[in-house]
Amino acid sequence: MSKAAHKRQIKEVRTKLSNLSPVAAAEAMEGMVAQQAKKQVNGFADFIREQGVVGIGIGLVLGIQMKAVVDVVMLKFVDPFTQLLLPGKTALSNITAHVRLAGRSADIGWGAIVYSLFSFLMVALIIYAAYKLLKLDRLKKV
Prior knowledge:
Non-ribosomal Peptide Synthetase Peptidyl Carrier Protein, Chain A; elongated
């Protein structure tokens, strides 16, 4: 609707409302407000349906839960297993390298970086496996 047509429609409504009794005008306004509210709700529902927001939300929740499972596996299995393999009986996530440069020193937590990368790779592998096993790559986008 053009701006001029919208202004003309508003003027018509005002004219009609001015010719009605106060009670009838209130009822007419109430009907218009209800109609506009219904239009907004339907527009939001259409947006949700068309944009696949529900699917994205489900994917996000599943991804978060998958990350929680991977975190537990990393903490309770991979970290203790690396303690057996690496010298010093230190968990992978706690291994640091002490670096000195120009009289200053810093501890670099390279173990935490490797731990994080391994965790990321596990999540990516699980998502890829689920994608292939469920044959989601063969679904047609409607």
